[in-house]
């Protein structure tokens, strides 16, 4: 192929314009992005070589090299991974395929400052290079292709790029950044090593740099021929917990999740037994915009014996925990496992159950520490005896569960219908507003502890909004009697609660369903009055029934109202008005 000039896809041109016309608080993320691509390329080679070992050619040790040339003002990142054919270079570097980048594009506000900040948080993959370079040259050869079929790709990050055929002996890719005037700081061993340590330490390949030694005569550092690894070169989850700092866990989370915020909690374990695997699971702080998309994939990456197999491994997490991010590395699954095979595997089932247990345990822990230590009292009013260390930890985690619940509580409720085995655990994790608390903070256990003598059920009402729930005429009698009622306003509440007939032996009862029998809490006099009223209003009821024939199943005298003249109720076992609306809006 002789030299060809091609245009970028319109979206790329738009993105590049933004990248090159903004100033950044953290330019340095470009290196994270390029090293991550180099590492992905090595993962891809390792994966393809499972079936075709010859792809390794004569270089079986996968690695990334970072080198700079002060005189030429270039910074070069070289990998010996899968490489790109000419067609692949045109396609992969000329269009945007990455969903993370598309997501980023969708969030652009037009405000240059805000958008620039977004780039730093998301990273925009390969194009991040143009933050520091006014020209990028990529030279590559795909593993398995002859040396004569190498490709050179060059662009100044404006509307177009050039491609041509080159001779390239080495398999893999070199990305050569021609640094801008204001990016001279990256022509420094110390600076590069620092950035690699911050963002790329967890990369499982060695990242090599040339050694530098102090030359006293010239009184400057000189570059040696010898290369040395500047990262730990072992995947983060394969290292012992005690060797990993909190900051490293957080950075790793940001890399795998494309989330800029630190996670609320994580759990890292090696599970041994009949199924062996390592799990590193994170609870994000914020729900993604598409949490409610039914097709949203799980956030778990699957590795088998440290070889990357797939992103979004749905089978490893139940759907209601689709927002959990992390990595599972299995010692048992075959390397060529497919999504179909995953669905059927017994090991996968065991891993999914183990993951679920672990996430619920993390949530239980956050829920336990949700209140600040000063106010942490046992239910019997006795303050728990806690060590200073526990107190400190608790203070740190105070409020996290409330924050978690506001983001993911509704998704968690889906579990009641989906995961019968963990229904009780899930029920304990639920929180609601109530007639005694505007904050969504009342657990079923809290409620039970406040039940009136003789109260036989946990009462709740469902409505579209908190205001509607609170003002419902159905609550009048409960208010008068001082009986707490849980106020449920999530769309899934009604459906979810249909799977939870009771909590810890106490039945759940909707105040909007059927006849409310308050049992012993109702005075004998009131009951008698109601019966009398029913008798004397019989003719009126008959008339009402006749005129509402098509609209109401039944009309009856009730004791549930105090001030309002009438209210609508549904039969026990029928869909409530809220659920009926939900089903209607779903087209059923
Ligand atoms: P992402 O890495 O999320 O796919 P990028 O913008 O970082 O998005 O990279 C775009 C694509 O370019 C990659 O998916 C890959 O196909 C190709 N690519 C980039 N760098 C390399 C590399 N070092 N080796 C092989 N392919 C690469
Ligand atoms: Mg990338």
UniProtKB/TrEMBL annotation:
Compartments (UniProt record): Cytoplasm
Segments forming domain Histidine kinase/HSP90-like ATPase: 26-183
Region annotation A: where it falls in the sequence: 1-339
Keywords attached to this entry: ATP-binding, Chaperone, Cytoplasm, Nucleotide-binding, Stress response
Highest taxon in the source lineage: Bacteria
Entries under PANTHER family matching the protein: HEAT SHOCK PROTEIN 90 FAMILY MEMBER
Family: Belongs to the heat shock protein 90 family.
Known role: Molecular chaperone. Has ATPase activity.
HAMAP family documented for this protein: HSP90
Quaternary structure annotation from Swiss-Prot or TrEMBL: Homodimer.
Protein name, entry field: Chaperone protein HtpG
Taxonomic placement: Bacteria, Pseudomonadati, Pseudomonadota, Betaproteobacteria, Burkholderiales
């Amino acid at each position: 192929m002789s030299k060809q000039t091609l245009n970028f896809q319109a979206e790329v041109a738009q993105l590049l314009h933004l990248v090159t016309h903004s100033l950044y608080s953290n330019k340095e993320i470009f290196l994270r992005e390029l090293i991550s691509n180099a590492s992905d390329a090595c993962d891809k080679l390792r994966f393809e070589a499972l079936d075709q070992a010859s792809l390794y050619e004569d270089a079986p040790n996968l690695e990334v090299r970072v080198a700079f040339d002060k005189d030429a003002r270039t910074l070069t990142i070289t990998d010996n991974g899968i490489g790109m054919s000419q067609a692949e270079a045109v396609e992969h570097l000329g269009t945007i395929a990455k969903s993370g980048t598309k997501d980023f594009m969708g969030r652009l506000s037009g405000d240059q400052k805000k958008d620039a900040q977004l780039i730093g948080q998301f990273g925009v993959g390969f194009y991040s290079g143009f933050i520091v370079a006014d020209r990028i040259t990529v030279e590559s050869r795909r593993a398995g292709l002859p040396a004569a079929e190498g490709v050179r790709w060059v662009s100044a990050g404006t509307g177009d790029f050039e491609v041509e055929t080159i001779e390239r002996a080495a398999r893999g890719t070199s990305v050569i950044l021609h640094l801008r005037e204001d990016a001279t700081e990256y022509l420094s061993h110390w600076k590069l090593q620092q950035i690699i340590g911050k963002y790329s330490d967890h990369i499982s390949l060695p990242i090599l740099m040339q050694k530098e030694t102090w030359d006293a005569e010239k009184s400057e550092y000189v570059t040696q021929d010898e290369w040395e690894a500047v990262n730990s070169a072992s995947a983060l989850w394969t290292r012992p917990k005690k060797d990993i700092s909190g900051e490293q866990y957080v950075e790793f989370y940001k890399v795998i999740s494309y989330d800029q915020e630190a996670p609320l909690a994580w759990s890292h374990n090696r599970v041994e037994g009949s199924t062996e695997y390592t799990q590193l699971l994170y609870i994000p702080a914020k729900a993604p915009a598409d949490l409610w998309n039914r097709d949203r994939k799980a956030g778990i990456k699957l590795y088998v014996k440290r070889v990357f197999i797939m992103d979004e491994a749905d089978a490893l997490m139940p759907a209601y925990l689709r927002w959990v991010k992390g990595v599972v590395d299995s010692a048992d699954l075959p390397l060529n496992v497919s999504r179909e095979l995953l669905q059927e595997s017994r090991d996968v089932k065991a891993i999914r159950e183990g993951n679920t247990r672990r996430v619920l345990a993390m949530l239980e822990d956050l829920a336990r520490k949700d209140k600040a230590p000063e106010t942490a009292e046992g239910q019997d009013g006795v303050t728990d005896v806690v060590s200073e260390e526990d107190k400190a930890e608790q203070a740190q985690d105070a409020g996290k569960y409330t924050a978690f619940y506001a983001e993911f509580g509704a998704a968690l409720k889906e579990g009641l219908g989906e995961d019968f085995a963990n229904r009780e655990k899930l029920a304990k994790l639920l929180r609601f507003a109530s007639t005694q608390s505007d904050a969504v903070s009342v657990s079923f256990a809290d409620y039970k502890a406040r039940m009136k003598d003789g109260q036989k059920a946990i009462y709740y009402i469902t409505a579209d909004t908190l205001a509607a729930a609170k003002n419902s005429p159905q609550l009048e009698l409960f208010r008068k009697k001082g009986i707490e009622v849980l106020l449920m306003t999530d769309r899934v509440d009604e459906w979810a609660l249909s799977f939870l007939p009771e909590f810890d032996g106490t039945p759940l009862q909707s105040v909007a369903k059927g006849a409310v029998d308050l049992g012993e809490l109702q005075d004998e006099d009131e009951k008698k009055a109601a019966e009398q009223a029913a008798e004397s209003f019989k003719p009126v009821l008959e008339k009402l029934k006749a005129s509402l024939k098509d609209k109401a199943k039944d009309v009856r005298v009730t004791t549930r109202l105090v001030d309002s003249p009438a209210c609508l109720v549904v039969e026990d076992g029928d869909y409530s008005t809220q659920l009926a609306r939900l089903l209607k809006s779903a087209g059923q």
